[in-house]
Amino acid sequence: MFEDIDTELKQRIDSLIKKLEDRITQAVANDDRLSETAIVLRSIPGIGPVASAMLIAEMPEIGTITGVEAAALTGLAPVAHDSGTLRGKRAIAGGRRALRHVMFQAALVTAHHNPSLKSFADRLRKAGPHKVVTTAVARKLVTVANALRKSRQK
Q: What angle do CA 84, 138, 112 make, to 5 degrees?
């Protein structure tokens, strides 16, 4: 009995997610600027439909700011801690949290499928822990996306 309810609920949620994804895709397709941005972003290996939509929605400034600003807005730029228990340490902080989490996922894909960023990630893996590597790849991915959008290149 409960399995039937779970199955029905899952099907209903999947249906709602599909409708929402279709509405997002349609909204992007109906706007020339957003459509152009999506094409540029999707040309980057590792950035799929979710990361592209999140970048468009959460960072409308993309392509009009510097790479450092893009990393800071995403919360992927290192911030120095000048006081407290972390004195002298640097960590990522602030920014747009939901976008940062999506970019972490995109970075995991990118580190394996984007040839130039794969070699970058491989070099970092020899020197640092997994989270540092993922953060560095995500930051580079955001700065590359920003630069490509700025120049309107794929």
A: 135
Are residues 104 and 74 in contact, defined by beta-carbon separation less than 8 angstroms? no
Work out the widest C-alpha separation in the chain, in whole angstroms: 58
**pLDDT digits over 50-82, tens only?**
999 999 999 999 999 998 899 989 988 876 656
Measured torsion, CA atoms of residues 10, 13, 18, 22, in degrees rounded to the nearest 10: 180
Distances (CA, A) of 111 to 17, 42, 65, 121, 144: 28, 16, 25, 6, 14
Comparing C-alpha atoms, which of 52, 56, 54 is closest to residue 43? 52
Q: What is the b/e burial string over 74-109, where b = at least 16 CB atoms within 10 angstroms of the residue's CB?
A: bbbbeeeeeeeeeeeeeebeebbeebbebbbbbbbb
Query: Per the confidence metrics, is the pTM higher than 0.85?
Result: no
Q: Which residue bears the tokens 């955001």?
A: 142
Quick one: pLDDT at residue 15?
Answer: 96
